[in-house]
Specification:
Helix content: 25-40%
Distance between the termini: 63 Å
Strand order of the largest sheet: 2-1-3-4-5-6-7-8
Strand content: 15-25%
Pfam families: FBPase, FBPase_C
Bound molecules: 2,5-anhydro-1,6-di-O-phosphono-D-mannitol, magnesium ion
GO biological process, one term: gluconeogenesis
Family: Belongs to the FBPase class 1 family.
Number of helices: 9
Structural class: alpha+beta
EC number: 3.1.3.11
Radius of gyration: 20 Å
GO cellular component, one term: cytosol
Shape: globular
Length: 328
């Protein structure tokens, strides 16, 4: 057999979504379509990220696309790509994004609201380190067709219908949940398809990796300092990429905890509840882990503003519980 023509055998994302739709989860097919729209926009963004290192070279030889968009920063570009895909798809009626100050009302009959961080960790682009996209999907609360209200977008994490992330790493992956477990798909660029590579993901209950920006140690609250000391005494490994999706994904596979605590600079930490924490909290719980502010479950937080920040402790059950115990 000629190995050059051997195709990966397995379930494509499209087939998987269709199968789940048939089984039980989303009878109308709208949520299925929404996931496909996000996956497609992810392919486009992936392509642009892969070219990122070439931009200056491309610029030097004077090529530019029609809209002049090549010169835009990648996080702005990613925001445009996702918002456009969601708007064209018609299933989403509104988008809130880390890149937009206000709610984007898509003025259509869609039933779903999307919260998105189109390109997290974008300071890592210049140094060729993994970055990601994070998204949450909610059902709108007010009647379809009416103007979007704040109550449609400021929903608790426990109201999420689906959540996921794309990781643009050594391979590009899409990991998502609709509340029935977590599944990971790896992108095969030459075929333009995502394949199910990580079915039914679960995080080891007890991890050995702690991920925190220890440079800010002196301004951590006392319980966090104590937990970090505990990690060292226990011989845990420190791993911190500084790219949330990549740090989260590694810990999900290997077991570990990611912490972005309160600091002197940011009284509520740095990460956003609506664009970063809710989605990862939903995924980690579906994978058997926990997500907390140190004192409260992330998914129980009633949001009061779009760009709200919260301290974030996420990962293996035993590790998050241990970290919380220092707050008691
Ligand atoms: P961003 O949304 O501006 O990209 O910031 C979020 C990023 C996360 O990916 C990462 O975990 C964190 O900021 C790192 O922050 P720090 O450099 O303070 O440790
Ligand atoms: Mg971000």
């Amino acid at each position: 057999e000629d190995s050059r023509i051997a195709l990966p055998i397995g379930t494509t994302l499209d087939r998987y979504i269709k199968k789940k739709q048939d089984e039980f989860q989303f009878a109308t097919g709208e949520l299925s379509q929404l996931l496909r729209d996000i996956a497609l926009a992810g392919k486009v963004v992936n392509r642009e990220i892969n070219k990122a290192g070439l931009i200056n070279i491309v610029g030097a030889i004077g090529t530019q696309n029609v809209q002049g968009e090549d010169q835009q920063k990648l996080d702005v570009l990613a925001n445009i790509r996702f918002t456009r895909a969601l708007s064209k798809g018609g299933e989403a009626c509104a988008v809130i994004s880390e890149e937009d100050d206000e709610i984007v009302d898509l003025n259509n009959e869609g039933r779903y609201v999307i919260a998105i961080d189109p390109l997290d960790g974008s300071s890592n682009i210049d140094v060729n380190v993994s970055i990601g996209t994070i998204f949450s999907i909610f059902r709108r609360v007010t009647p379809v067709g009416s103007p979007i209200q704040e109550i449609d977008v400021l929903q608790k994490g426990s109201e999420q219908v689906a959540a996921g992330y794309l990781l643009y790493g050594s391979s590009t992956m899409l990991v998502y949940t609709t509340g029935h477990g977590v599944n990971g798909f790896t992108y095969e660029p030459s075929l333009g398809e995502y394949f199910l590579s990580h079915p039914n993901m679960s995080i080891p209950e007890q991890g050995k990796i702690y991920s925190i920006n220890e440079g800010s140690y002196n301004s951590f609250p006392e319980p966090v300092k104590k937990y970090v000391e505990h990690c060292k005494e226990s011989g845990h490994s420190a791993r911190y990429i500084g790219s949330l999706v990549a740090d989260f994904h590694r810990n999900l596979l290997k077991g570990g905890i990611y912490i972005y605590p309160q600091t002197a600079k940011d009284a509520n930490g740095k990460l956003r509840l609506m664009y970063e924490c809710n989605a990862l909290a939903f995924i980690i719980e579906q994978a058997g882990g926990l997500a907390s502010t140190g004192t409260q479950r992330i998914l129980d937080i009633e949001p009061n503003e779009l760009h709200q920040r919260v301290p974030f402790f996420v990962g293996s059950k035993d590790m998050v519980e241990k970290a919380e115990s220092f707050f008691n």
